[in-house]
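Comment thread on ticket #2218

A.B. wrote:
> Attaching the input chain for the structure job we discussed in standup.
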Amino acid sequence: MVDHMTSRNHRTDADLFKALSDGDDAKVCEICRELPDGPLHRLTIHNDSILHIASYYKHNKLVLQLLNLIPENQPEKLMLKNEAGKTLLHATATSNRTVEAAAEMLRRAPLLLSMTDRLGETALFRSARYGKTQTFKFLEAEKQKHKSESAKKLATLLIEKDTSWEATEPRSDQNRIKPHKYGGGDTTAQQIKMQSETHHADIIITSDTPDSPLLLATKSGCTEIVKKILEVYPQAIEHIDEDGRHILHVAIKYRRMDIYKAVIDMKNPLTRLRAKIDKRGNSILHMVGLKVTDQNAEEDIRSPALVLRDDLILFESVKKICTTLATLQVNNDGVTAEQLFIKNNVQLRIDAKEWMKSTVENCSIVAVLISTVAFAAAYTVPGGPNQQTGYPLLKNKPFFIVFALADALSLTFSLTSVIIFLSILTSSFRLTDFRDTLHNKLLLGLTVLILSVSMMMIAFAATLVLTISSRQDWTNVILYTISFFPVSVFVCSHVNLYKLLIKAFEERVRRIMASILPNRAVESPQAIQQPTPASQNPTTSFTESTT
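C.D. wrote:
> Ran it. Output below, let me know if you need it in another format.
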């Protein structure tokens, strides 16, 4: 019977969390009416109530509807706190969309304005911390209003109750400090403390426990299992490990990109997860610089430059979904996410630079050799020149035109690739160059080099046909095969690198298109912040970092 009830409660919580995530207000209200605690029902492992979650997700209309389910003569119910000591007003303070809901809460329970969480922060401080101007102005106005009202009430009370002016005292005693007969009662602060302690007793402090199945599946990269868990038990997205890290922290650290993309597509949960930090003060942006040291087999075969490029793209992607505060936030070691990324990728950047230089130097040697051969071939045309006129003897042959064009293109392409490779070698190798510039140049250089080799072999094949052509078709087929065999070997030896560069180029084009078209994944994503000047940072910024 107990198991049946537990299973039923889990299903109810799952349906409720899914309805909140999907924005199904009608279903949320319907389920709340059937719950004993109504909208104050604890829904997550952090003891967040339904009202907390709705406020975090910025569902202003839903919060107002849920508040109507709570009797107005029970304001103490609105002072409910979660595990972190945050009230409902704290939850609404992180958005400018829930000002109306905050106003209704304060109308019913004015003491919410003075209540603090475990960090000693009020809702007013929290709104300022997250840069929510409208909410801050409203709460500040309410604070001043309450101060004024409290002063008026105190003055009225003194006027009505104080009879000290009726008593006559010796002049010598008029300057003596006397306790007011109404000064010994409970103050508002004491009442707040008592109410805070009362609700604080309802909070369950979770001890360190083993990782949940969701986080274990995330670390292992089991995307299907993660999706199934979130489908059956959507509130599991709130789970954290012993370091205080949630699913986004883990997915970014372990480079589980499929899981990362699936979570950021969950619009409402993302609005809350992106601002959370772990026990060491690390945001999800810090996790980009804290990847695990043991790389999988796929990452081992990739070049250091491509690994660094992927990390830079991930940093940019995570930065877009982070709040402005998270991009500037320092962890417990006093390090920002950007500084941590640069610090932990110093060796990778050195390896990437060496790999890039080595690759470009080898390709440059090939390009120079091809240009030398192509240049010499122009003066040693097949069949030789006419001794009297100097014109080639075979100039009227169809394949001579093929030879001339192929040789000219081979020389042009090879010299072009040499110029491109030289531009890479003379690059400053800034950190941001590894994200786009260097890879685009390398892709273009390899493409032109492959075309140069191909044109040279076409010229070689045309020369063979012109000089030792045969009427037998099979002879010509053998000649063509022999001619293009080196091209095939060259292409096959570089196919893996070329595929990775093509993939990188496609991602670059996709990002450009995404910047032009509206972003559907994240509502009003924060623009990438300008790096802090190097003079103010202990670590050089991306754009100024050079080896």
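A.B. wrote:
> Thanks. Noting for the ticket: The chain has three domains: 2-157+190-200, 213-344, 347-516.
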